[in-house]
Write a structure and sequence with these properties.
The protein is an all-alpha fold. It contains four helices and no strands.
Length: 83
């Protein structure tokens, strides 16, 4: 996995969700760590689409449980020219 993508995602999450960078780890639970509610998921989708050119379907988050899952999703779906 591209460390540049991971660093970019982590920076965005720290800025947008006011979480400590040390709490973000590939095996950490995304929802719990970011304290996401349904509105926060909408924010996360918007941030992902704006920064990575990924068109996210809300149901895609059913399979994203950890930060590692999220990194992989973005890596697999991001438009290469935005990375």
């Amino acid at each position: 996995m591209d460390s540049e993508i991971i660093n970019r995602i982590n920076t965005l999450l720290v800025d947008e969700f006011e979480v400590e960078a040390g709490q973000i780890a590939p095996d950490a639970d995304l929802k719990t760590t970011l304290d996401l509610d349904s509105l926060d998921y909408i924010d996360l989708i918007a941030i992902t689409e704006a920064n990575f050119g990924v068109k996210v379907k809300p149901e895609d988050f059913n399979d994203i449980h950890t930060f590692g899952d999220f990194y992989k999703y973005i890596s697999d779906h991001a438009r290469k020219e935005l990375i």
